[in-house]
Each structure stands twice: as structure tokens, then as C-alpha cells.
Amino acid sequence: MEEAAQPTVVPRARETLLEAHEVIKAFGGHRAVDGLTFTLARGAITGLIGPNGAGKTTLFNCLAGALKPDGGRIVLDGRDLTGAAPSRFFAAGLARTFQIPRPFPALSVLENVMLAPRGQLGEQPWANWLRPGAVAAEERRTREAAMHWLAFVGLARLAPEPARVLSGGQRKLLELARVMVSRPRLVLLDEPGAGVNPALLEQIVEKIAALNREHGTSFLVIEHNMDLVASLCSPVLVMAEGRLLTQGAPDEVLADARVVEAYLGGDAADAGPAAAPGSTAKRPTPSGDGALAA
Ligand SMILES: Nc1ncnc2c1ncn2[C@@H]1O[C@H](COP(=O)(O)OP(=O)(O)OP(=O)(O)O)[C@@H](O)[C@H]1O
Ligand SMILES: [Mg+2]
């Protein structure tokens, strides 16, 4: 009996975890996401690249329930969650980080991470009176989990400090700890490398790879740093003007003339990559000094 049940319980490594079908999101008349179809494999670290304004963050907002798509379908782990509230995506195992992290500055680093799990017993007013022991035990577990993930990202020392003392890179690490407290199946990371110094960046890459390897967490990673994408992500999806331009192995995608064109075809063609506003962090930053591809 047990053997017969096993195949349905143990997921295959490359099973589909998320399916997006013809997703559309428009602002005014402009379709920021324009009929996007793709799947994410369970257990993969998938990259999502594309020039500024391609619609990547808007897509994340649709995938996390922060924005209701104007069309299409989003299926997470076999459940159709199209148009559902963020709490339902969260309950289905999805967590996301923000392009610009905004921790509560006056709360401690630890408290910011402890805010992550929802539906805690202590949020129910009656529970504090009727089941104070259970509430305290739950809070202790959340605190331990928060400390565990803070240590994991190397921020344990800063746990009691107010979050306002954190550098940009440390805020990115705080985000990673925050999302991990809820033990998500799928994590959407919006530019984890932006504004992070190279030493910290290496740490972040290592942490994401370890979470994927050791906990089986799947990731979808938006990133402009092509070194990070090449070393961490496979496959890579490329968005341009709200659409899926191409997808494939990082080496193939980064050498694709259409991808280079999409990046250079915008304002970068006029200003040149180095002179572009927003600095190199917003531009493809491939290995060495060169362009996106040779
Ligand atoms: N809330 C909004 N209201 C109106 N337009 C928006 C809104 N959010 C995004 N847009 C527009 O949608 C398009 C896609 O923006 P989005 O932020 O998704 O791009 P992105 O690929 O994440 O870019 P970047 O790499 O710069 O972060 C842009 O033209 C942007 O101006
Ligand atoms: Mg964005």
C-alpha cells in the first residue's frame, strides 16, 4: 500500500510548480504584461531578465496576488489562484521579496523577520486570554525560526539593532531571512543583487543555492547582474515589452542576439551602458567589462 502511494506523495524534480497562462496586466492603455505564458519547474532556480520597464516586477505582483491580472490564469501547485488575495498565494507556499526593501525602521532586525508568518495564534484577541501558553509557545517558535534564518544570512549579530542601521545589501539579506521563516515552496526574488557589494553578493548567491539544494526551495529571480544570473539560474526567461522574448539555458540566452538587442535597443543605445541613469546596477553587467554577449 505504501509503495503504491509513494509516487503521488514524492514530487518529481522537474514537475511543474507554477503555470502562468496568457497573463495580462495593463496600466491605463499600456500592457506592462502582455499575454505571458511560461511554467516554473519545481526545484529550479529560474532567472527572469529583461531591460528596465520590461514588466518583470509587474509580473511578480501578479504572481504574488498584489495585482489582479486583467487576463490569463495563474496556477500554483495545481491550484488556480488567478485574482486571489496575496494571503492565498502565501498560504499556498509563495513568498516574495521587494525590489526596494522597506523594513520597519524602528523595529529591530529580529522583529522585522518575526512579522513574516501570518495567521499566528497571537493575532486573535481571544487567544491571548484563553490560550496564553499556546500563544507564548508559538511566539517562541517564531523567534527561534527568525533567529535561525538571521544566522543563516549572517545577520544574527544585528538582530537587536533597529532595521534602519542596515545597509542596502543587508536589507536584501533581511528580506531573504524574512521570506524563509514561512518555509515557502516558491520564492520570488526581485533583484536580490541590486546595490549589494561583491562580497555580500557572493554570500547571497551561496545562500540561495544552499536553500535550493538543501531545502528544495524553488526560486524565480529577477536580476540585472548577468554574472549572478549565469552562476545561479537555469533556465532563464527573458521579458521584453511585457512579452516572453525567449527562454533557455543562461549561456544560450545571454548570447542570443535578440536579447542583446532588447537590452541595447532602449535608452542604453543612446546613452551607452556606462552613462545610463541608474548606474550599472540597472544594466546587464556580464563577466568582464564587455557587452551582454560577445
Ligand atoms: N503601478 C503602476 N502604474 C502605472 N504604470 C506602472 C505601474 N507599475 C509599473 N508600471 C509601468 O509598467 C511597465 C513595467 O514596469 P515594471 O516595474 O514591471 O518593469 P521592470 O521590468 O520591473 O523594470 P526594472 O528592471 O526597471 O525594475 C513600465 O512601463 C512601468 O512604468
Ligand atoms: Mg522591477
Describe the structure.
The protein is built from twelve helices and ten strands. The protein has 294 residues and is an alpha/beta fold. It has two domains: 19-100 and 185-294, Rossmann fold, CATH 3.40.50.300; 104-165, no CATH class. The strands form two sheets. A six-stranded mixed β-sheet has the order 6-7-8-3-9-10, sandwiched between helices. Strands 2-1-4-5 form a four-stranded antiparallel β-sheet, covered by helices on one side. Strand 7 (186-190), helix 8 (198-215) and strand 8 form a beta-alpha-beta unit. Helix 6 (132-152) packs across helix 7. The longest helix has 21 residues, at 132-152. It is globular and about 60 Å long.
Strand order of the largest sheet: 6-7-8-3-9-10
> What Rg, in angstroms, do the CA atoms define?
20 Å
Mean pLDDT across every amino acid position: 84
The H-level CATH homologous superfamily of the largest domain, spelled out, is P-loop containing nucleotide triphosphate hydrolases
CATH architecture of the largest domain: 3-Layer(aba) Sandwich
**CATH class descriptor name of the largest domain:** Alpha Beta
Bound molecules: adenosine-5'-triphosphate, magnesium ion
Terminal Cα span: 56 Å
Low-confidence stretches: 1-7, 268-294
Assign the structural class, choosing from mainly alpha, mainly beta, alpha/beta, alpha+beta, or little secondary structure.
alpha/beta
Please, how many domains?
A: 2
CATH topology of the largest domain: Rossmann fold
Number of helices: 12
Give the topology string: H per helix, E per strand.
HEEEHEEHEHHHHEHEHEEHHH
DSSP strand tally: 10
How would the global form be characterised?
globular
Strand content: 15-25%
The biggest beta sheet is recorded as: 6 strands, mixed
Question: What is the helix content?
Answer: 25-40%
